[in-house]
Amino acid sequence: MKYVSWKMALIAAAIVLMVLGVPARAQDGDNDGCSNATLFGDYAFTLHGESLGVLVPQTGAPPSLVPFASPLPADGVAMTHFDGVGGLTQVDFVMRRGTSAATPGTPLTANGFRSGETGSYEVSPDCTGTFKIKFGDTTEIDVAFVISNHGQEIRTVVTSQHVPKLPPPIVPPGAVCAAPAGCDLGVQIRSDGIKVGIFALPNLAKSAPRTRQRGLVSRPKAAKRAA
After folding, report:
1. Separation between Cα atoms, residue 141 and residue 189, nearest integer Å
2. Do residues 141 and 158 touch, judged by C-beta distance below 8 A?
3. Which secondary structure element, helix H or strand E, spans residue 147, and what is its range?
4. Ordered structural domains, the chain, with CATH
5. CA neighbours closer than 13 Å in the CB half-sphere of residue 45
6. What distance, in Å, lies between the first and last C-alpha atoms of the chain?
7. Which helix (H) or strand (E) holds 146?
8. What SS3 state is found at 174?
9. What is the per-residue pLDDT across 9-21, written as a single tens digit (0 to 9) for each?
C-alpha cells in the first residue's frame, strides 16, 4: 500500500505541473483558427462607459489627460454588420447626460439611430482583433476586441476617440478642442455584442427530468444458507 500511495503522489504531481504549464504555452503563438471570416453578419451591442477629458499632446512624452469638470457618462446600443472580409457598417443610439449624443447634421434613421457609420476590422488567429469606425460627424474611434463562443460573441474596449470639436463650456482649462483640428479624448468605454439570430439551445441531456424505473436494476441474489 505504501508503494501504491507513493506512485499515485508522483502521478498527481506530474499532472499539476502539466496543468500549470499549459497557460504559458497556450498564449505563445496561439492559433484558435479565427480570421476576418469569423465575424460575419449582424451583431447587437450594448455599451457603457465615460469620457474622462481631453488628451493634450506633449513633446517627447505621452499625451497628458486634462480632465473634464466631471466625467461624461455614455450608455448605448448599436447594430454592427461585419462583412466577413474586413469591412463593417453600423447604426447606434448613444445617450449622454440624459440626451442623445447625435450632433446637428448627423444622419439619422427613421427611429433616431445615428447612421452612415463605416469602418474596417482585422481578426488575428488567436481570436483577438481591432476595428476602426468613422461616424457621420467625422468622429473616429479605435477598438480592441476578443471573440468568443465560435464567433457568436464579441467583447470590446475603446482604445482611442477623436472628435471634430466639443461644446466650449465643457472644454477644460488648458485644453483646446475646436474645428477643424478637433481633439483626442481620454475614454473608458466597453461593449458586449452577440450575433443576431443565434439562439442557445438548452442541453437536453442535462435538463431532461431524471426518472427512476423500477425493475431495471439487478440485485445480487442472497446466498443460500447451508442446511
Report:
1. 11
2. yes
3. strand 140-148
4. 36-195 (2.40.160)
5. 26
6. 40
7. strand 140-148
8. coil
9. 555 555 544 545 5
Q: Among 13-22, 83-92, 122-131, 192-201, which is the least confidently predicted range?
A: 13-22
Residue with the larger pLDDT of the pair 208 and 49: 49
Counts of helices then strands in the chain (DSSP H, E): 2, 9
Q: How many residues does the chain have?
A: 227
d(CA 198, CA 23) in angstroms, rounded, equals 30
Give the predicted TM-score (pTM) of the model: 0.74
Q: How confident is the model at residue 54 (pLDDT cuts 50, 70, 90)?
A: very high
Residues 6+ apart with CB under 8 A from 134: 117, 118, 119, 140
Type of residue found at 99:
T
Grid coordinates representing 213 are 424505473
**Residue for grid cell 452612415:** 116
In the block, which residue shows the cell 470590446?
156
For 44, the grid coordinates are 447587437
Partners of 78 in beta bridges = 45, 92
119 grid coordinates: 469602418
Q: pLDDT per residue over 128-160, tens digit each?
A: 999 999 998 999 999 999 999 999 999 999 999
Which residue, among 161, 193, 190, has the nearest Cα to 177 in the 3D structure? 161
